[in-house]
Amino acid sequence: MKPHATATWLDDQEMQALAAEYRLTWEPSTDRTFSMPFTDLLDPSKSLNYLQGVSSIFETDSETATVSLFAKRYAYLILASGLYAMSRFNKGLNYEIANGTIESSYQGEAWLPKARLTNWQTTSPEADQRGVWRDQVIEQMFAGNLAKVWQSLSKATRVSRSVLWENTAIYVYWLYENKFAEGATPEEKQRVEEDFHYLIRDAPAHLFGESRNPLKQFNTPKRATAVSDTPIRVRKTCCFYYLAADDPEDYCPTCPKLKH
């Protein structure tokens, strides 16, 4: 069988870009209270204890809001660097759940955790093998990590997996539509567009560890609404942000609870 990928490494410039913009770090955090291996999220007692602590950061007593807000941050730290490396550098980071750690980090008062990997070796596709390679990279991130965490958290807290997957999907849309093409060459822009199209339309469900592609499931058309002149995707599920907000009527602009 023809090999579909070769072993590679991030160069210094690539690593700096991912560290500066996409929440990847090679340094352990000094804050070990909210730092832990990804795999601890699969242990109900460890994850619930962790989330109880994180709820103080979000300043909410709502377990539902805590799980949802944490899931947003976790999805971002997995996907932002992983998908950017795939689409811009043509390099695959190993985001299998056994290969990383959540590293607690703050920007001012905002808690914005980062990802630190154990094995930093990357892969690059062989000629004419990018589709096979891309599936492997996607599957490691989604089925091999996020799907397992969402299933575990949903089972432990009864927060719907649909909410967690839509939290995931909104970041994929935002990153590809607003961030990943910045400063890209024509070749890189084409790759970004092709990867985004594949993720939200054609990628098979098994790559996500689900019975259907969740990124496609939540990809509703953008439209102007009564609360937004700028076209937006109105969410299908509520992320429960308002339960942690100072104003109980403070909904996200895309929230389905608003009268769009």
Automatic annotation (TrEMBL):
Residue span, Aerobactin siderophore biosynthesis IucA/IucC-like C-terminal domain: 68-198
Source lineage: Bacteria, Bacillati, Bacillota, Bacilli, Bacillales
InterPro entries membership: FhuF_C (IPR024726), IucA/IucC-like_C (IPR022770)
Protein name: Ferric iron reductase protein FhuF
Residue span, Ferric siderophore reductase C-terminal domain: 235-257
A Pfam cross-reference name: FhuF_C
